[in-house]
Amino acid sequence: MLFFLPSLDPEGFNKAVEGDCSGEKFSGESFDHQISPEGSLLSTRPELAALKSFLTASKYTLVLSIEARGMWVRYPLDNPVENNGLVQGAVTDDEDLLSYLASSYSLDHPTMHTEVNCNGHRFPTGVIRGAEWSPAPNSLQDFMYLNRGSYMISSHVTCCKYPDHSELKRLWRDNLEPLMGFIAQAQQCKLSYNRLGLVGLVVSVPVGHLCRTQFESCFGLDPEL
Questions:
Q1: Is 15 exposed, middle or buried (0-12, 13-18, 19+ CB in 10 A)?
Q2: Nearest partner of 70 among 29, 18, 106, judged by Cα
Q3: Contacts with 205 (C-beta within 8 Å, 6 or more apart), sequence order
Q4: Which candidate, 215, 193, 178, 214, places its Cα nearest to that of 103?
């Protein structure tokens, strides 16, 4: 089952100006960086409460956020945490799988993997762990991974914060194949994954993470035995 949630961040979109690549005319709070890894809401906006309700109402295998301000794919963690058995600093136990998912999107994109310079930032493979780029606490990615047990990556598809409408066809064309590839990843092995278990496959305890040798084999990775 696929879920689509368009236009997520309420950054004063009605006050924004088409073609304003800097995003300086945006105002208001962003949904991102407003939910702690423990699930506490850091804003009283009703939209944020509705978002948390949506994210916690179902169990999601993979989550993809389409964003601007770059030409790369970002994966968790966005902010280092104290070692808790799943994470060492900003590197999770699922580092290889998360980087694989991010790399798959970048490589399927015609230019993302070619070290595009975006506002002074550039990454050789078009992939970056969030904490290495711009450490930020309370991100949606970290909440979904640490609290909900979901694998979430964020694809930054344009350097311009609010691109001109004439760019939309190109953006759609450039990202169609990566998007379809990501959907295929979600369907691979007919996964029904969540932090409490994976139907038909072995999970670890007590956190319920899917045993790495099982999950990695679904994605064609070479697990270390």
A1: exposed
A2: 106
A3: none
A4: 178
Check if the beta carbon of residue 29 is closer than 8 Å to that of residue 44: no
Phi, psi torsion values for 59, nearest 5 degrees: -110, 120
Spatial CA neighbour of 128 closest among 138, 141, 137: 141
The letter for the amino acid at 20 is: D
Contact indicator for 130, 141 with CB cutoff of 8 Å: yes
- All structural domains of the chain, each given as residue ranges with its CATH number in brackets, are 13-193 (3.40.630.10)
Give CA–CA dist 44/174, Å, rounded: 37
Q: Where are the alpha helices (DSSP H) in the chain?
A: 46-57, 95-108, 130-133, 140-146, 168-187, 212-218
pTM: 0.78
Token pair in block for residue 70? 């770059």
- Give dist(CA 5, CA 60) in Å, integer: 13
- What pLDDT digit, counting tens, does each position of 11-35 carry? 566 777 888 887 655 544 555 667 7
Contact between 154 and 73 (Cβ < 8 Å):
yes
pLDDT of 190: 45
23: phi > 0 → left, psi -120 to 50 → alpha, else beta; which? left
Burial of 189: CB neighbours in 10 Å, binned 0-12, 13-18, 19+: middle
